[in-house]
Each structure stands twice: as structure tokens, then as C-alpha cells.
Design a protein that fits this description.
This protein folds into three domains: 81 residues, no CATH class; 131 residues, Trna Endonuclease, Chain: A, domain 1, CATH 3.40.1350; 57 residues, DNA polymerase, domain 1 (Orthogonal Bundle), CATH 1.10.150. Helices cover 45% and strands 17% of the residues. It has a five-stranded mixed β-sheet with strand order 3-4-5-7-9, with helices on both faces. A two-stranded antiparallel sheet has the order 1-2. The protein is globular, with a radius of gyration of 21 Å. 32% of the residues are buried.
Length: 286
């Protein structure tokens, strides 16, 4: 590859994040995101050179992403889909239920059995828990905070609130024979980010936090890329309405389509569109 990844002379250019903050442009980060998407050597070099040619102070990270995505799509369909992961998750709304099912799949990959949208008794009041994940007498009570804007940040108010809810549920469950010997942990999962205060509070009270890029190197984007559990909203070969129809019927990740193509019957696609969709889903999951 060219010297794009070394001695980044473009790092003096400030780009604007979705939150409105400015930060130095990083060629290294751009390359890393393209590599995670599966783009090959020549495609990455072409895209980085293109971005460098028009990069100016104040340009938004969204504009950089949109341009890179467009170039990826012209080179490799499945690669473009994977690169669009963050945007795809933002399109899983508006209810947040598909995101809960995605988090449930994440927990299952880690060996947990899961339930979603369960109403449970607390010591004082009842609570609806987005995901209950159980493994070896450890039960994790997960609250999902889904955001449809990349600039949304989860503040310390959320772990404060969740901590009290978890304590109320645990106090009740410690009196129930079926939970004898169990330990419990609260968890907050989001597709965006946490404030520093939220992270500090969670550490103090053993709350498990999962965000787009937190914990560092083990965040949601790394898990999805590593395990290839891409949401169906990354797909380019069906419409937004068709994706919503699938999610309404519990089809949330591309792997479900690959494992059981019959879930697509409700879309009533012709053979050409059906094969196009199946091929795209398979390429994304490989």
C-alpha cells in the first residue's frame, strides 16, 4: 500500500463528528474500518487516495463515510454492506425491539441462554427486562438503550436508574428457591456511546457496559465483525419496508436468512431477487 498509513500528513485536518466535536483526521482509522469490511489492498488504497484528494477542515465524518461507502459499493457489494454496519444499526428502529434481539444473539454467542422482553417481579414493583441472559448460575439483566442518532450519548442517569432496578429484582430473586446459588449482574447495552461519568459509575457498582466501541477492542462493532452477526439492515438488495417486515417477524440478522431461507417466503420475491438476496447474505456472513 502507499504511504497513506504512515506519517499521516492529513492529521492536521480537523473533521467533525456526529456529536459536533472536532478531532484530527486519521488515515489509520479509515484504513482499519475498510480492512474490517473485507476490502482488499487495491480498493483500500484507491478509497484513501480519493478521500485525501478532497479532505478539508470541518468536513463531517458522515461525508467521509458516505463517500467511502459509495466507492466500496462500486467495487464489492458485500464489503459495502459490512462497511455500512453503524448506519445499518441506526436503521433498526424505531421501536428498539430488533436491537434487543441483536443483543440477545450477542449473548447467545457467549454461551448464554436468553429471553427478551420479560416482565419480572422485583421486591417492590414489577420490571420489564429487555434481555435476561443466563449461564452457569450467572444471570445478567440487560437494559438496551437504542439510539437512532450516532451523536446520542448515554449519560450517568441511565446506570443510576438501572442499578436501582437491578437491585430491586435481585433482592426479590434471592428469596426465590429457583435462584438458589445464583449470582446476578446488571448490564446496559447501546449502539452509541457512554459518557465518562456513566462508565465510572458502572465500574464502581459492577455494571457491565457494552457500547459501539466500549470496552475498547471488545465493543459491539468488534463483536459483530468477529462473529459475523450482521443485522439485516446492512442488506442492499431489499427495501427498507421489506427489512422491517422481516424484523417484525423476528428475522434480525443475516445469518438467520442463510440458515433458513424459508424465512424469506413472506416477502414473495421472484427467483432473481431471491437469489440476489441469498447471495448477498451469504457473502456478508462469510
Amino acid at each position: 500500500m502507499s504511504n497513506n498509513s504512515q506519517n499521516d500528513k492529513h492529521s492536521n485536518i480537523l473533521v467533525r463528528k456526529a456529536s459536533g466535536e472536532s478531532q484530527p483526521f486519521s488515515t489509520k482509522k479509515l484504513i482499519a474500518s475498510l480492512e474490517r469490511a473485507g476490502a482488499d489492498f487495491d480498493v483500500i488504497d484507491h478509497i484513501v487516495s480519493d478521500v485525501h484528494s478532497w479532505l478539508t477542515n470541518g468536513v463531517t465524518t458522515k461525508k467521509i463515510y458516505d463517500r467511502a461507502f459509495s466507492l466500496l459499493r462500486s467495487n464489492k457489494y458485500a464489503t459495502a454492506s459490512r462497511y455500512g454496519l453503524k448506519k445499518a444499526i441506526l436503521e433498526m428502529g424505531p421501536t428498539g425491539y430488533p436491537f434487543e434481539h441483536l443483543i440477545s444473539k450477542v449473548m447467545q454467542l457467549d454461551g448464554y441462554s436468553t429471553q427478551t422482553g420479560i416482565v419480572v417481579d422485583g421486591y417492590s414493583v414489577t420490571h420489564e427486562v429487555d434481555v435476561i441472559a443466563t449461564k452457569n448460575k450467572l444471570q445478567v439483566l440487560v437494559e438496551c438503550k437504542y439510539g437512532q442518532s450516532a451523536g446520542r450519548i448515554v449519560s450517568v442517569k441511565v446506570p443510576l436508574y438501572i442499578h436501582s432496578r437491578v437491585n430491586d429484582i435481585v433482592r426479590k430473586r434471592q428469596t426465590m428457591p429457583e435462584f438458589d446459588g445464583f449470582t446476578f449482574q446488571g448490564c446496559i447495552a447501546t449502539n452509541t456511546r457512554f459518557t465518562t461519568d456513566a462508565i465510572d459509575y458502572a465500574k464502581s457498582y459492577n455494571l457491565w457496559l457494552l457500547a459501539w466501541d466500549y470496552p475498547v477492542g471488545k465493543g459491539l462493532k468488534e463483536i459483530i465483525d468477529r462473529e459475523k452477526i450482521y443485522p439485516i439492515t446492512v442488506l442492499n438488495s431489499i427495501t427498507k419496508a421489506q427489512k422491517q417486515q422481516l424484523m417484525d417477524n423476528g428475522v434480525v440478522i443475516c445469518r438467520q436468512i442463510v440458515d433458513d431461507p424459508k424465512v424469506l417466503d413472506r416477502l414473495q420475491l421472484n427467483n432473481r431477487k431471491l437469489n440476489e438476496l441469498l447471495n448477498e447474505a451469504k457473502n456478508i456472513c462469510n
